[in-house]
Amino acid sequence: MFMGMTRFLAAVLFFGALACGVGHTASESEIADSLPAAEPTPQKTEGMQKAVFAGGCFWGVEAVFEHVKGVKDARSGYAGGKAKTASYETVSGGDTGHAESVEVTFDPSVVSYEQLLDVFFTVAHDPTQLNRQGPDEGTQYRSAIFFANDEQRNAAAAYIEKATAEKRFPQPIVTEVSALDKFYPAEAYHQDYLKHHPKEPYIVYNDLPKLAALKEKFPDRYVK
Predict the structure, then answer these.
(1) Of these four, 37, 92, 142, 172, which has the most CB atoms within 10 Å of its CB?
(2) What is the pTM assigned to this prediction?
(3) pLDDT, tens digit (0-9, with 9 covering 90-100), for 124-134
(4) What b/e string do you get for 23-46 counting C-beta neighbours within 10 Å, with b at 16 or more?
């Protein structure tokens, strides 16, 4: 009886860790970094462009885009809500309107916005899951594209329309397409999370397969 209960508790602790952010204890320095930046970066700087995507836990989405040729930077953060509630502690409750998001800075002469959409829909997440991704549930894990201009909005709408017409997915696409208000960078300990924690159970089960899929499906766009 005692051994059975011990195994049960161990299983609960193990699988409970397989959720974005669960089981992570922030250090004092991480807590100090918990406030979001006062202002987001501009949408265009020196020929670079920015795009914001939400597809579940930002760890895996960020890692995928960091391995796409032409992407100069990918940052985890929050979009869809207000500044005063843009912190992990508040967003994780699912009541702030934010979605865990990733801001992608890319060189359009190397990779187009449409190609980023292809990566987003094909390997970064499942666009048919409503308000969840894998083990993570709640509106903060919804599938969303936060467009910065009419060009991005039209490209996203066209992609979804075409993918739906071609029946690329077994279920309807539920991705939200909304105008970007502001992007708020996440706390320092969330940035490059996969790179720093490649053996963490959540990463192994949920995010490393996304990188493998990127390399397999888009070998010409994949970079180490």
Answers:
(1) 142
(2) 0.84
(3) 999 999 999 99
(4) eeebeeeeeebbebeeebeebeee
- Location of structure tokens 């959409």: 117
Q: State the catalytic residues.
A: 57
The full set of domains in the chain, from first to last, is: 2-217 (3.30.1060.10)
Q: How many CB atoms within 10 Å of residue 213?
A: 15
H/E stretch holding 90 reads: helix 88-91
DSSP string for residues in 38-63: SSPPPSEETTEEEEEEEESSHHHHHH
Q: Which helix (H) or strand (E) holds 185?
A: strand 183-185
174-205: string of b/e by CB count within 10 Å (b at 16+)?
bbbbbebebbbbbbebbbbbbeebeebebbee
Pairing, β 71-79 against β 176-179: unpaired
What is the tens place of the pLDDT at every residue in 157-196?
999 999 999 999 999 999 999 999 999 999 999 999 999 9
